[in-house]
């Protein structure tokens, strides 16, 4: 059975020569034509979002049809999708899930196998050694989880793992304490590892399958005294784009695009690079939308690529766990600490989140800090939150309309047919429904700027007052914008009765459980579709909106989040993840599995 996760083959020489030509052609296309995302809309008179919502409904229905209800059916679905027997302990995992009324659809755990598959290409002893010999780790011995570090993320993850520790074999988990992910293995090496992993994909005869876990040495003893810890050769290269792009296929546009180093000017926002994931101007594929490997313009549109707060990366694959990652990172995902801790500043309260749709203000709210990395006088125009806040400043939009002067965004393409834009009143219209402000400019003070503020940002942004989650839930529309990494408020937004509008480059544990346009509204990372999304829902003058559809998605997302994004679902996900991790770390992994349903 061929793995669904094997990277594409290396390109031919012809393809490599064609890449630079394609880049040039894409840029020429952008500058010489008004990109037509909208031909079918013009021909049929229907709105593209209508068809995206219909497609989402069908996709979600198809997913639910895969739900299994018995242990035997779950094991069958596992073998069909993974090409292996389930891991030892699968029966205990299924019982744990059933007792918590979990929805069991095998697709929901795809991220686990994306993350762990390349480790089947490494020696198990190396995996164990690298995990044990890391300064920040959680260890499980004899059904008890411990951690020496008192870092608050470590303690939150430890608390989560302790709720399932009695079901776990011995293991060590290396943890990432940074906002930013740590591993980018070159694509060519990942391809080789995936090929090696594929060779291990087998389902041995049930009579020879092993289900007993190996015991590991006690906490004070080296787990592999004869194995040398791999040298991680930590890198601190900036811009991070130079590190990130090596994880892209050699045939990708990003691998061949010129690296930008000057971010003092208005960034180029090249819509042609979004064509693969857009349906007539709106996001149709969120996985491709978050994959920058064929979107080289994103290197100047997100702070992680420009100037992250910290850079400490390695080319070496080792089992490090973290809360989020970019498409090219090789970290193993856990539910983020703020999701498990459920702090009110990130989640709000259930009472606040349950405000009736009809009682909310018919507009947009966003409050946040100017994060995304280290913004300075020389690079702030390339930060995503600065761009989004500017696009919601009616005065800035009106100036762009009248004088063509913009600092860090572009006006929407004509194909969106925005009535307010046609009337030269886009800025005035935005002012009517948008309340988007920074609460802290997070200024760089290295150049002698005053603490808490700076001339380079204060000329363009007015700091607003902070708002609690309870206050934000009083609005119908909640855009969610990446910060230094993922946004910790997303789960709170999903659990509310407001409508999340999500733009992100980051992958999280729950991605395969959510359906765009069914549970949330996706947005491109350039934000060029922002005004079109809002016109669809709010309308403009005699151009009717779609309030009932917005309500349906908001409440549908809330209901679904309360079914598959609970703390119990995080426990179930982590238990499955760690059983698989324990197996891939075991010397007898190819003979290990759960096969009681196959043995008479």
Automatic annotation (TrEMBL):
Residues of the Glycosyl transferase CAP10 domain: 282-588
InterPro entries from the UniProt entry: CAP10, O-Glucosyltr/Glycosyltrsf_90
Keyword annotations of the record: Membrane, Transmembrane, Transmembrane helix
TM region positions: 14-32
Keyword Nucleotide-binding: no
Entry keyword annotation includes Glycosyltransferase: no
Pfam families documented for this protein: Glyco_transf_90
PANTHER family linked to this entry: CAPSULE ASSOCIATED PROTEIN, KDEL LYS-ASP-GLU-LEU CONTAINING - RELATED
Protein name: Glycosyl transferase CAP10 domain-containing protein
Species annotation: Echria macrotheca
């Amino acid at each position: 059975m061929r793995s669904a996760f094997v990277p594409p083959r290396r390109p031919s020489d012809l393809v490599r020569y064609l890449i630079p030509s394609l880049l040039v052609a894409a840029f020429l296309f952008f500058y010489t034509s008004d990109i037509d995302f909208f031909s079918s809309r013009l021909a049929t008179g229907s709105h593209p979002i209508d068809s995206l919502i219909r497609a989402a409904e069908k996709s979600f229905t198809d997913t639910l049809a895969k739900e299994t209800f018995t242990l035997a059916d779950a094991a069958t679905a596992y073998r069909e999708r993974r090409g292996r027997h389930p891991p030892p302990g699968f029966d205990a995992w299924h019982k744990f899930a059933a007792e918590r009324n979990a929805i069991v659809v095998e697709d929901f755990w795809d991220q686990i196998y994306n993350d762990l598959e390349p480790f089947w290409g490494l020696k198990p002893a190396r995996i164990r050694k690298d995990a044990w010999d890391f300064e920040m780790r959680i260890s499980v011995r004899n059904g008890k989880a411990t951690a020496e570090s008192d870092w608050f993320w470590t303690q939150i993850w430890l608390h989560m793992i302790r709720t399932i520790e009695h079901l776990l074999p011995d293991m060590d988990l290396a943890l990432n304490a940074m906002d930013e992910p740590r591993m980018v293995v070159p694509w060519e090496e990942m391809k080789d590892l995936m090929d090696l992993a594929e060779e291990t994909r087998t389902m041995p005869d049930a009579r020879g399958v092993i289900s007993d876990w190996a015991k590991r040495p006690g906490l004070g003893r080296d787990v592999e005294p004869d194995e040398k810890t791999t040298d991680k050769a930590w890198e601190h290269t900036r811009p991070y784009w130079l590190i990130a792009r090596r994880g892209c296929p050699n045939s990708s546009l990003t691998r061949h695009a010129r690296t930008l180093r000057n971010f003092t000017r208005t960034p180029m926002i090249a819509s042609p690079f979004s064509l693969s994931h857009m349906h007539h101007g709106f996001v149709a594929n969120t996985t491709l939308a978050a994959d920058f490997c064929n979107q080289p313009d994103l290197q100047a549109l997100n702070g992680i690529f420009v100037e992250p707060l910290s850079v400490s990366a390695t080319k070496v694959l080792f089992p490090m766990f973290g809360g989020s990652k970019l498409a090219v990172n090789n970290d193993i995902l856990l539910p983020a600490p703020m999701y498990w801790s459920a702090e009110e500043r990130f989640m709000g309260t259930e009472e606040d989140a349950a405000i009736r749709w009809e009682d909310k203000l018919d507009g947009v709210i966003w409050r946040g800090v100017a994060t995304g990395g280290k913004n300075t006088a020389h690079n702030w125009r390339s930060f995503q939150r600065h761009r989004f806040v500017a696009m919601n400043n009616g005065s800035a939009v009106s100036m762009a309309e009248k004088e063509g002067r913009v600092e860090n965004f572009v006006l929407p393409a004509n194909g969106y047919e925005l009535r307010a834009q046609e009337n030269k009143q886009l800025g005035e219209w935005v002012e009517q429904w948008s309340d988007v402000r920074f609460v802290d400019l997070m200024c760089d003070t290295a150049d002698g700027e005053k603490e808490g503020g700076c001339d380079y940002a204060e000329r363009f942004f007015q700091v607003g007052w902070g708002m609690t989650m309870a206050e934000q839930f009083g609005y119908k529309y909640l855009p969610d914008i990446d910060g230094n990494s993922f946004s910790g408020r997303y789960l709170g937004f999903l659990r509310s009765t407001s409508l999340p509008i999500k733009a992100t480059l980051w992958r999280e544990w729950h991605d395969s459980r959510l359906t765009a346009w069914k549970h949330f509204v996706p947005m491109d990372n350039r934000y060029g579709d922002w005004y079109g999304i809002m016109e669809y829902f709010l309308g403009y003058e005699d151009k009717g909106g779609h309030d009932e559809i917005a309500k349906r998605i908001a409440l549908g997302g809330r209901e679904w989040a309360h079914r598959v994004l609970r703390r119990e679902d995080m426990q179930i996900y982590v238990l499955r993840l760690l059983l698989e991790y324990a197996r891939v770390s075991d010397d007898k992994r190819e003979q290990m599995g759960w096969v009681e349903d196959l043995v008479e």
